[in-house]
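REQUEST ID: PR-0412
SUBMITTED BY: lab tech R.K.
PRIORITY: routine
TASK: structure prediction, single protein chain
INPUT:
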Amino acid sequence: MQTIGDILSPDFVHARMGDRVEQVLEVMTRQQINTVPVMDDAGSLRGILVRSDIYRFMIDPGHYSSCPVEWVMTKNVVTARLEDSLAETALRLLDHRIEAMPVLDGDRVVGVVSKADLLRHFAMSDASRALQS
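STATUS: complete
OUTPUT:
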């Protein structure tokens, strides 16, 4: 059984408590990502910032350029663990109707897995098997 740990990339974008929403959105746009875990200085998960939540927040006039991510982030975060199976993780994403979620090793965030990551893995696995046939 393959696990999330088998396919997880060690490189991921994250925000820190106190980061400004405007700065994080610029990074998300530049990196073409929609979901960013928010971590404390110890690397523990504190929340998650999703592009659509930022856009909803921007509808109301205010201090978008100076507000911290804590004002917008979701605090009750759906997560995966390194040892979770790929199928279990895919079902969790579908059941919660989310595009991506942080992956934890104990209490520490070690990456982010998305529907696109899982689709890419399954598609490449199928293509590889077809070539071997």
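NOTES: Residues 25 and 93 are 23 Å apart (CA to CA).
REVIEWED BY: pending
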